[in-house]
Amino acid sequence: MAQSAIFLSGEILKRAKEQNIEISNMSLQKLLFIANGLYLAKNGVPLIQEPIEVWPYGPVIKSVYQEFKTYGNSAIKQIPLSYSINQQKELDKATDDVVEFALEVAKNLNAIQLSNWTHLPESPWTEAKNNNEKEISNDLMINYFKKFVNKPISE
Known about the structure:
By secondary structure, this protein is mainly alpha-helical. It has helices at residues 5-18, 25-43, 62-68, 81-86, 93-108, 111-118, 124-130, 138-145; strands at 53-55, 58-60. Strand 1 and strand 2 form a beta hairpin.
């Protein structure tokens, strides 16, 4: 079931704080992109309600950027108020799985590494950018991320 990007940001940030993982706005954007792509590839529907836009430096969810832009490249310190109000909301197993996967990625890759990964020649952001599109389509996301589905996270 599609969720608000701000709500999912709050869930990622809450869990990251519990695990002592620092997440910047740029990292959060890329983690949401990955979570949405995997969810789409597994379930055929988007995880995030808002579109993922094609910005010059990578995929961006505008509401998330606006919420956390004051942090610049620094770690986000505060969980969004709208998440705090709704945090009793239960996540379904598929959503929980992709959020956990995003946190595993965050443990191993910094913001620059995540950005570089989203800029690979065959990535949905690169494809959309090359086609002068303003948003990354679900089809581009599904086609790219389906190759990562059903593979083990680690050996």
